[in-house]
Input
Amino acid sequence: MNLEEKLQVLSDAFGVAGFEDEVREVIRQMAAPYVDRCEVDPLGNLICTRGEGEAVMVDAHMDEVGFMVRWIEKDGFLRLTALGGWDDRILLGHRLVLKTRSGAKLQGVIGATPPHILSEAERNKVVPLDDLFVDVGARNREEAEALGVRIGDPATIHYPFVRLREGYVTGKAFDDRAGCLVALEALRLLQGVKLPYKLVVNFAVFEEGGLRGAKAAAYRIAPKLALALEGTIGADMPGVPEAKQPVRLGQGPAITLADRSITVNPRLARFLEKVAEQKGIRYQYKLPAYGSTDAGAIHTERGGIVAGVVSVPCRYIHSPVSTLWLSDLEATVHLVTEFLNQAGEFLATL
Ligand SMILES: [Zn+2]
Output
């Protein structure tokens, strides 16, 4: 599989926060050839290890934003609650994939009241998630249950991966399957390379809605140094002034200086910049201080862990149409691989 095909498989896999089984199995198969062992912790984190010595942790979250069924109406319509941060403005009129307890997938649609019967005031109002309803073709609650639907079932807006043009692609879950792919590619490129430390890659659960998986994994792994990989907030688009664009597409990997969950140790930020400059990798800063990342949860674990973040620029994250340039993804793989190649040098200074 080439890079684009791998991203397709990863983005299309189901992995709503707290229900990561399917995507975890996909990632486990992709990672296994390049690591000594993979284990799953009690929360569901997939922890892949190679080599011996002091631990360096790389983290990318497997989960994606989604929903949970919170109620089944008498007339068969479903109500949802959010798993992760959604923008209510983009929810109406999408197709949904719902996973039942047996693992079967049902199709549904987020219905919209016809504009013909709405007043102008109603048409101009954003419908909050609480008022939205899902139609799975059930004519009453009993039929919904007969289809396998239960309160608590997870769901996602499923838009299959599509190439918009050569090198420019869109899919539902580049946050953070792009980061997962960067970690997988770095493992592949480092195969056979002797590293002076133990490399532990955590594919985290529960990032969306509380950075919970990475926190538990960081405690278990007890690294001295950690790097979180993200697909992050590309906002170079009409109507957004440059000063409010956290990252821009086509400008290479984004190095975080600070987000809402962490101020990155300046020595680590300088080390990442040095690696990029040495290898001629064009990079950008993620403008402070937007979003939260697993690095936020990792760096306060144990007695404190030096942690940073490198991200693939993605537009429209937390929507079903996240979009990226594969050239940015490739450059991020390059930077992270070179960082891991040289991380022993930085580790020795901690
Ligand atoms: Zn993310």
In short: The mean pLDDT is 96.
